[in-house]
Amino acid sequence: MNIKQIVKNSRTYFKSHETLEYKFRKENLNKLRLAINKYEPQLLESLKLDLGKNEHESYMTEIGVVLKELTYNEKRLKKLMKPKRVRTAVTDFPGSSFRYAEPFGVVLIISPWNYPVNLTLSPLIGALTAGNTAIIKPSEFSINTSKVIEEMILDTFEEKYVKVIQGGVETNQELLDQKFDYIFFTGSTNVGKIVMEKASKHLTPISLELGGKSPVIVDKNVNIQVAAKRITFGKYLNSGQTCIAPDYLYVHKDIKEEFISEMNKNIIEFYGEKPLESSIYGSIINQRHFNRLKNYLNDGTSIVGGTIDEENLRIAPTLLDSVEMSSLVMKEEIFGPILPIISYTEIDEVIDFIGSRPKPLALYLFTENAHIEKRVLSECQFGGGCINDTVMHIASEYLPFGGVGESGMGSYHGAKSFETFSHYKSILKKRTWFDLPVRYAPYSPVKKKLIKRFLK
Ligand code: NAD
Question: Which of 160, 333, 343, 422 meets the CB 3.0–4.6 Å disulfide criterion with 253?
Fold first, then answer.
């Protein structure tokens, strides 16, 4: 079946109104849960093949978070679907007002390769909870996982309801030429721009979950052991191929040496003396990304790590010192296990630098100093982040996740996903037993006086 026909079938099905019913949505969310449970072994296996992910990490960052998202939506489905009552303006007396959620229609979900299960199924949960039909284009790079996802979806849903389309750039472009009712894109900033341009042809609303360089700042007034552990976790998870991984580190010069030694201790504790041989340390997705990352190693001095395994596409957890701010590693999103370290004396330097760059997707600040916390939160613009932790904000269903400026637009997770995939119709329901006459002609001084009283 060609893409045009697939989109047409999906729209025809949406227009049948079947997806609007509470019971339908509830049943299908449950079907998805059963499917994920059934396919868990295959998903774990394919994640190992694509990214060398160990089971613990795969469950924690891919399957588990998706199940948690499902639980949230299943439990609150009725409440999410219920029209939301709001106050009624005095000028609308007698009446009531509410916001009525309706699905957009046919949703296109385009996902990347770094968390192929999570970043495909989490948006899908939002789309289905909100009552849409969906067409999914997973990444061509996480080939094994994309195949399992296709098999799982085919085994679970009718194609007119949810359909997976495999393919690369050309397929994506053909998809983007079609008219969708919503596009949810997760990927790079450059491709995000293409998606937005294509969407503008049909005025299709979009969410762009993009990337960028997310800084981590370590103040001198800090618990060094905890900071180093949490940064090691967030940076080297999935071998640094995480959109919200700390990209570069600003550390106060007074604690730099101690902090580096603590990071080194943690890297050894997590991955052993020889991380390249560790069974729990992942690989880089492909040769192109491996070569790109290898080149960054020349942009500074590797004071920890810096070793590579060409055959298995692995790069050891690396701390890169003496980097030039104008070098590539400080310009491009790293998206790998290399952490450039820059020391600072005054927080103003850091705030100025971050402000001079595109708005990051995430920012992490480690400090016990309330004044510095307040300054960074109010003066730096970024998508979201943590104080005294890294990456964990993404795992909370109570914190909408997304970027700002070049790191994206829109957000999702928890109740926010339902909102993202819904259009809210604002409805004023009037009663007919009384009709306030002031708005109707013929006008009079008395009516004018009343209008002036209402409208000020
Ligand atoms: P990508 O932008 O290269 O690819 C994403 C999708 O777009 C893929 O399905 C791909 O087939 C498609 N695509 C690629 N080139 C295209 C083109 N010219 N026209 C149309 N479609 C095209 O991203 P990626 O390499 O898969 O993922 C890495 C990027 O994604 C990083 O920048 C990372 O920060 C970002 N990311 C963001 C989030 C988030 O939640 N904000 C999560 C994960 C990854």
Answer: 343
CATH 3.40.309.10 residue ranges in the chain? 215-395
Q: Which helix (H) or strand (E) holds 429?
A: strand 422-430
Distance CA 316, CA 273 (A): 10
1, pLDDT greater than 80: no
For the question of residue 243 being annotated catalytic, the response is: yes
Q: Which residue has the tokens 């009718």?
A: 158
Calculate the alpha carbon distances from 159 to 112, 170, 300 in Å.
Answer: 22, 22, 51
197: burial class by Cβ within 10 Å (0-12, 13-18, 19+)?
A: exposed
Overall fold of domain 215-395: Aldehyde Dehydrogenase; Chain A, domain 2 (3.40.309)
Mark whether 380 is an active-site residue: no
Catalytic residue, chosen from 62, 69, 243, 380, is: 243
Tens of pLDDT, residue by residue over 172-217, are: 999 999 999 999 999 999 999 999 999 999 999 999 999 999 999 9
Atom of ligand 1 nearest to the CA of 243: 34
pTM, rounded to two decimals: 0.96
Q: Which CATH class is domain 3-210+408-425?
A: alpha beta
